[in-house]
Design goal:
Helix content is 36%, strand content 21%. The protein is of the alpha+beta class. It starts with 17 loop residues before the first helix and ends in a 10-residue tail after the last helix.
Length: 424
C-alpha cells in the first residue's frame, strides 16, 4: 500500500487528461485575445481580509470553505477561493484606473474551497475567468456574456442554458428583501434548515432552496423591484444580447452565492441538471472596487469551471487524442553503438525531431517492441554494420520497410512533412 494519496478533493491531472486541458485553455486564450483581454496572474494566496470584504463575510465561501492559515510572520492569509477579488485588488494596486477604461483582463488559475468533494466539486479546482473593469455600460455586460457564450460554443458543448437575471443595487435591494421575507414568513416550514437560518440575513438565497421548487417559483421577482436605472440597464442588456444572437432564459430564481454582485447575474448550465452542475457564472460588481478602498468603479466578469467543462466534454463524447508519441525510436546493438545512439538521439531532438532512446542493455528485439509500444513512426537502428558505414537503418514501423540513411541526413529524412527546422 502506498503511504500517501493526493489530498481529498484534489486530483492529479494525468498525461492522458492533458489534451482536454490544453484544448480548453487554448480556446480561452484564443477568444479572450480576440475580444481584447490581456492575461493576469495574481498570487495563489492573499490577505484573508480581501475575500471577507469582497466575496462577503457571511457567505458560505468565507464562513466554511476557505483555506486560511497564519504564516511564520503572523499574517493571516487564504488560498484564493475565486479570482475576481484578486484581479480587482491588482487593478487598484497597479493604478490601472489611469489606463483607458474598461481594463479587460483574463486568467486561468487553480482555486481552493473546502467543500464536500463529489463529481464536479473539488477542493482544488481550476477556473478560467475574465473581468472588464471601469465601465457601467450594459454593452459591456453584453460583451462579457457574448464572450462566455462563444467560448462554450467553441468547446463544442451542446444543449447549454444561459440563465439571466438582474438583482438590482444595494440601494434597491432592501425593498426586495422585505417582499421576500413577507412571502416566505408563513412558509418557513417548507424550506431547508440552512435556508431558515438565512431568512433574516440573506433572504435572496431562499430562492435557491432545493426543498420546495414550487414555493420559490411563485416568490416575488427581483426584476419587479429594480430601481429605474437598473431596469433600464437590464432592458438595454437584453436588447444587445438579442442583437448578438445570444440565447438566454430569464430566471428569477438565479441568485449568486457571492455578495459583490449588482444588477446583472448569469450562469451557464448543462441542459438536464440543476445548479450543482453550473459550468460557469458571472455578473456585474459595481461596488466591489470601492469596497476594497478604491474610487467608485464598476466592473463585470465571468468564471468557468475547467473540471466541469471537461466532465461535460467527456459525457458528450468529444474525443481529443493524446499525441505524445516520438517520431523516432533509436535502438542499438552493443556498447559502441549505444554511445552513437545517445549522440544521434540528442542531434535529432536538437533538429526538432521528437526522439526516444532504447535504455539499458535490452536485445534489439525488445527495443523494437518498445519502439512500437511508444507509437513511434520510425525505428532508427545502430549496429556494427551501420557504424562502419556512418549510417543508420531506418525502419518504417507501420509499413515494415527499411532503408539505410547516412547519419548526416538522418534528421532531414525523419522530420515530419511540413515541420520546419527546430528553433532550439
Ligand atoms: P462561482 O460561481 O463561485 O463564481 O464559480 C464559478 C464556476 O467555478 C462555477 O460555475 C463552477 O463551474 C466552478 N466551481 C466553483 N466551485 C467549484 C468546485 N468546488 N469544484 C469545481 N468547480 C467549481 C466565481 O468564482 C466568480 N468569481 C465568477 C465571476 C467572475 N463573477 C464575476 N467575475
Amino acid at each position: 500500500m502506498p503511504k500517501f494519496r493526493a489530498p481529498r478533493g484534489a486530483a492529479d491531472i494525468l498525461p492522458e487528461e492533458q489534451p482536454y486541458w490544453d484544448f480548453v485553455s487554448q480556446q480561452v486564450e484564443r477568444l479572450c485575445r480576440l475580444y481584447g483581454y490581456r492575461r493576469i496572474e495574481p498570487p495563489l494566496f492573499e490577505d484573508v481580509g480581501l475575500f471577507e470584504r469582497s466575496v462577503g463575510a457571511e457567505t458560505d465561501i468565507v464562513q466554511k470553505e476557505m483555506y486560511t492559515f497564519q504564516d511564520k510572520g503572523g499574517d493571516t492569509l487564504a488560498l484564493r477561493p475565486e479570482g475576481t477579488a484578486s484581479v480587482c485588488r491588482a487593478y487598484l494596486e497597479h493604478g490601472m484606473q489611469s489606463l483607458p477604461q474598461p481594463v479587460r483582463l483574463y486568467y486561468l488559475l487553480p482555486m481552493f474551497r473546502y467543500e464536500r468533494p463529489q463529481a464536479g466539486r473539488y477542493r482544488q479546482f481550476h477556473q478560467f475567468g475574465f473581468e472588464a473593469i471601469g465601465e457601467a455600460d450594459a454593452a459591456l455586460d453584453a460583451e462579457v456574456i457574448d464572450l462566455s457564450w462563444q467560448l462554450y460554443r467553441a468547446f463544442g458543448l451542446k444543449g447549454l442554458r444561459l440563465a439571466l437575471n438582474s438583482i438590482g443595487t444595494p440601494e434597491s435591494r432592501p425593498r426586495y428583501h422585505e417582499a421576500l421575507r413577507a412571502y416566505y414568513q408563513p412558509h418557513l416550514g417548507q424550506v431547508c434548515p440552512d435556508c431558515r437560518a438565512r431568512f433574516e440575513r440573506a433572504p435572496l438565497r431562499l430562492l435557491d432552496c432545493k426543498q420546495d421548487a414550487a414555493l420559490a417559483e411563485a416568490a416575488p421577482r427581483s426584476l419587479d423591484y429594480l430601481d429605474g436605472e437598473s431596469a433600464r440597464h437590464f432592458q438595454q442588456l437584453c436588447r444587445y444580447l438579442d442583437g448578438l444572437d445570444v440565447p438566454y432564459t430569464l430566471d428569477h430564481r438565479l441568485v449568486r452565492g457571492l455578495d459583490y454582485y449588482t444588477r446583472t447575474v448569469y450562469e451557464i448550465q448543462p441542459a438536464q441538471e440543476g445548479s450543482q452542475s453550473t459550468i460557469g457564472a458571472g455578473g456585474r460588481y459595481d461596488g466591489l472596487i470601492q469596497e476594497l478602498g478604491g474610487p467608485p468603479t464598476p466592473g463585470v466578469g465571468f468564471a468557468g469551471g475547467m473540471e466541469r467543462i471537461i466532465l461535460n466534454l467527456k459525457r458528450q463524447g468529444v474525443a481529443l487524442a493524446a499525441t505524445a508519441a516520438p517520431r523516432a525510436f533509436v535502438a542499438f546493438v552493443g556498447e559502441e553503438a549505444k554511445a552513437v545512439a545517445v549522440r544521434v538521439t540528442g542531434e535529432l531532438r536538437r533538429a526538432g525531431v521528437a526522439a526516444a532512446l532504447g535504455l539499458g542493455d535490452r536485445s534489439l528485439k525488445a527495443q523494437l517492441r518498445q519502439a512500437s509500444a511508444t507509437g513511434a513512426a520510425y525505428a532508427v537502428i545502430l549496429g556494427a554494420d551501420e557504424l562502419a558505414a556512418g549510417a543508420a537503418t531506418v525502419r518504417d514501423l507501420a509499413q515494415a520497410t527499411q532503408e539505410r540513411v547516412p547519419l548526416g541526413t538522418l534528421a532531414e529524412r525523419l522530420r515530419a512533412p511540413g515541420s520546419g527546422p527546430s528553433s532550439l
